[in-house]
Amino acid sequence: MKGFIGLLCPCFLFGKNADFLGSGTLMGSCTTHFILWAFFNTICCFLTEGILLGLPGCFVACYACGYRKTLRSKYNLQEAPCGDFATHFFCHLCAICQEYREIRERSGDSNSSDLSLVAVTAPQVQKMETPPANE
């Protein structure tokens, strides 16, 4: 269901992600995302006569990749297989849905849509050690 919301109204899902990460409010982040998306979408449609309709996500990537970096640092996730900017640049809508799914799954309640009451602690960094040699 959230995949459809991410496709039809990405600003709402982006706002929920930002609100959960503590990097903004639902309305503030949602509005900023909507304004950037609408501005670049309008420019792209007028300049290319609708051919480059998917291009606005590329420009919004500059704004959105910071939230992805915050999510990765909160959960000790690696920046792989590509960077935060590249992920949002090439598939902005998929990145927003992926971030929402990651937050929902790590919050402990994969069925809940209200993530405001969840307290999350990052897992410890794990290291591999060589076993001691038998003497």
UniProtKB/TrEMBL annotation:
In terms of Pfam families, this protein maps to:
PLAC8
What the entry lists under InterPro entries is as follows: PLAC_motif_containing
Name the UniProt key words of this record, in alphabetical order.
Membrane, Transmembrane, Transmembrane helix
Query: Per the record's keyword annotation, is Zinc included, yes or no?
Result: no
Segments spanning the bilayer are 34-64
Report the protein name in the record: Cell number regulator 5
